[in-house]
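Narrative progress, year one. The postdoctoral researcher (J.K.) led the effort to move from monomer predictions toward full complexes, under supervision of the PI. The following entry was the first complex the group processed end to end, covering 635 residues in total.
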Amino acid sequence: MAHLKPVPDPAPAPEQGEQLDVAQLERYATVLRMHCVSMLAVAKSGHLDSSLSAADIVAALYFRVLRHDPSAPDWPERDRFVLSKGHAAPIQYAALAEHGYFPVEDLQGLRSIGSHLQGHPDMNRTPGIEVSTGSLGQGLSMSLGICLALRLDGRSDTAHVFAVLSDGDCQEGETWEGAMAAAHYEVPNLTAVVDYNHLQTDGTTEEVMDTGDVRAKFEAFGWDSIEIDGHDMGAIVEALERSRTLDRPAAIVCQTKKGRGVSFMEGRFGFHGKPPSPEQASEAMDELEATLKAQDEALAGAGGEG
Amino acid sequence: MAPVEAKTEPIATRQAYGDALVALGEAHEEVVALDADLAVSTQSMKFGKQFPDRFFNCGAAEANMMSISCGLAATGKVPYASTFAIFATSRSYDQVRLGIAHNELRVRIGASHGGVSLGEDGASHQMIEDIALMRAMPKMQVVVPADYNQAFAATYESYQREGPMYMRFGRPATPIVYEEIPETLGDGVDVLREGKDISIFACGHMVWRALDAAETLAREDGVEAEVVNVAIIKPLAAHKVLESLAKTGVAVTAEEHRVTGGLGDAIRQVAAELHPVPIFALGMQDEFGVSGTAEACMEHFGLTATGIADLAREAMLKKPLVQHPPIGG
C-alpha cells in the first residue's frame, strides 16, 4: 500500500472537558474515515461502508459527548460506548487510536494474526472496548446490563451508556427484548443510536426485511425517540447531549448513507463486507483528503476571523 | 463452613441453588441474580425476595437475560442467570457464547430442570444435550452436582472460581449422596465407593442410582464396582478418571443426557487417548424425551439403577483378560 497516502496527523485529541465545535468534529470525522480506508486497504478485509456511515456519530461521541479518559480506560465513572454493529469496528478503532488508547500504527494490523484489533470488537484484547460484539442484536441488551450495574453502583446520574446499532440490529429480535427491558427498568442513562443506512448484505433493508418506522417502534416500546440526519453534525451533537438529560432511555434514529464521504460508494449497494481495491482505496483517500483540506481551510478561516 | 444445615431427606438440587444464592447475596454485595419468568421454579425467587434491588426478572426473554448478564459482569457484578436448562443453552447459545464465554466473564448460569426428569412437560422442555453444548463452548465450565448438599457447595463455591460456569440442576427430589455439605468441589471427581472390577462414572441424578447399581452388582454378581461422581465435567480431572480406569480396566458411564457429547464422551475422550479400555455409555440415544412423571420418564429411557447394573454386566463381558498399563504410565 505504498501508493496510499498516509492519514495526516490531526490536531491532538481534545483534553477532557474541552468542547469541540461542529466544524472541528466534522474534521475529526474525516480523519476517522481516512483511517478506515487505510486500515481496510491493508487488511484487504472488513466492512468499510458500514464504518463510514457511522463516522459522524462516532466522531461526535468520542470527541465531544463521551466522558472518558484514555489513560484510564477502566475509570468507573466513564461513559460507555458499545458498538452493537460490531462489524463497523474500524471506525471505533480509529477513534480509540486517535485518543491514544493504543498507538495509531496498530491500526495497520487490523484483522491479522498477532494484532489486538480483531474483525469485531474484543473487550479482552483492545483497550477501550467495553464488551465484545459482532453478533447482531446483542449490544443493546449488553448496554442495559451495564446500566443496571451502574445503577447498583449509584452512577446512573453520571455514567451514560451509548449503544450504536445498525438497521440489521433492528431486525434481530433480541434488540426489542432489550428495548422492552430498558423501558421496564426505567434506565435513565441509556441511549441507542441507530445508524440507519438502509443497506445490508443482501440488498436494501426495504427489499430484504423492511424494518419500518424504527423511531416509532422505539417510541412504542416506551422510549424517548427522535429521528435526525445522521450526517448533520450539529443535529447529532444536540440529540446526543439532549439524550443525557432525559429520565428514560432514548433512541436516536440517524438516517445515514452507507459509505458516506466516498462518492463511488455512498448509498450504493454492493460494498458490504468488501474491502476496497487498491484503486478504490486510492480514489477514496484522494476524495477524503480534499474534504479534509477544505475543512482545514474553513477552520483556518474561521480561526482567522475569530 | 456452609451457612446451612446439610440435608438428609430427598430434595431437589435446584433448592440448593436457591438457598446458596441467598447465602451468596448476604456474603457478597456484587452478587446479582437474573431470571426469565421461572424464578419460582429455578428457586432464584428466594434471592429476589431477599434482595429485590439486585434481582432482575427479564420476563420470557432468555437471550436478553444472557446479554444483560454480560453487561453486568463487565461492570463488576457477579451475575447468576437462571432459567430451565433448555432455554439457558439452546435458546440463548449465541448470547452465552459471545457475551459470556468469549469474554471469559464471571457469569454463572443456573440451569434447572435438566434432563428428562423434568417430567410431564415433555420433549419441548426436557434438555438432554446441554452438557454437550456447554462442553463444546470454549472457556465454559460445566458443573452437574449429584444431590442437594453438593449442589449447595457447588453454587456457594462458584463465587470463588474464575471464568464462566454452567451449572445443571434438577427438578425432582433426589436422594442424598453426600452426608455433609462439602467444603469444596475440589477437582470435581469423587470416588464415592471403591471397587476393583468396573468403574461407574455418573453425574447428577444418576449418581445415587449408580450407588444402588453397585450395591446390586456386589450382592448378585460378586462384582466390586467403583462409583465415581463426576460433578465437574469440564474441565475434567483426567488423572482421577485414569486412576480408576487403571484399576478396573472397564467402565460404564451414566447420565441423564444424550450419549453424545456428555459425560460418557468426556470420559471416553480421556480414555481413548491415554488408556483405551471398553467404556459403555448409558444415556439418551438418538431420541427426544416424552411426557410422564419424573420417575416414569427415567424408567422409560432405562435411566435407572437396573439400567446401570445391566450395562455394567454387559461391559464386564468385554473386559480384556489382560490389563495393560496406562499409556505413558
